[in-house]
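mind reviewing this fold:
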Amino acid sequence: MKAAPEFLSNLFGSVLPESIAAQATTTIWYALLAVMIFVPVIIVMAMLTYAERRVIGAMQARVGPNRVGPFGLLQPFADVLKLIVKEVVIPTSSNKVLFLIAPLLALVPALAAWAVVPLWPGFVVADINAGVLFLLALSSAGVYGIILAGWATNSKYAFLGAMRAAAQMVAYEIAMGFAVVGVIMASGSLNLGEIIAGQGGGFSNWYCVWLFPLLIIYFISGVAETNRAPFDVVEGESEIVAGSHVEYSGMAFALFFVAEYTNMILIAVLTTLFFLGGWLSPLEGWVFLPDALSWLRGSSAVWMYLKVAFFLFLYLWFRATFPRYRYDQIMRLGWKIFIPVTLVWIVVESVLMIYKIGPWSINVAVAGA
């Protein structure tokens, strides 16, 4: 990302000593960038809750929210207002400090991950070469908020839900990590922008073609990682109620809610970046398109957001379609199926790279030219 604009430097330079002005300029600039990213993400998250109720309502022959605002569009904001005015009840026997810190530990990694995610061509807050490692580290940190919430509550229901969630997240995190290893091998980079650039040249060069099993495993593992249906066993109504956050209310509960939906959006975005070429057009290289439609061949943020919307729709579709799996089925899927399949496909990808098959032959030809 570029340095702070000149007008900010001039503004602080005119009122502060030079030694402080530079630091103040950088701090304010990154604070503005954080607001520019977090506010749209939160708004999209709020509208995703609306879309979820409308889409699932349509699938189940229901109406969905339609009372607050035109077509019910203001329903998410009414929900926010309701959660703000509700009292945050802290259980008497809980560890009060950890009880209040836990929601933040769940939310902060979900928001911090957006710092390295390129949202459109040429825009990323922190264009670091180890962006993938940064994302993997933050995804691992998110589990601490869940565990801490279950333990600090001093409730057996919450603690059992936290242990379920932690075991499930660890199992599917490993599968996701191995799937990402396949992407790193294909691109030769840990930088998200370079991973997107490595898929240029048309749809046939997208990693979803040659790494299709890894795409399926990555996205399904992402659904399990976010504890969404049909992997939402941490919220068994007949067993452990709402899981690790069963004792939370008001805005404390809302933070867990925001973290869950923000992670859903993040998984959809990362799946798009890793496997579907990010903002690259699927029509790239279609020279036979008429001039009036030639713009469809170009890279655009619109392509990226359409792909993200598709994966978010799959989240909603899964919830409306599949019943909740048993816990043993979920763990068996993660440990005994997904992890072995990713390892096998990494070996297959290694063979393709060694013998220059598929997109790797194209890369060799380009390098030779």
Notes: The two ends are 32 Å apart (CA to CA).
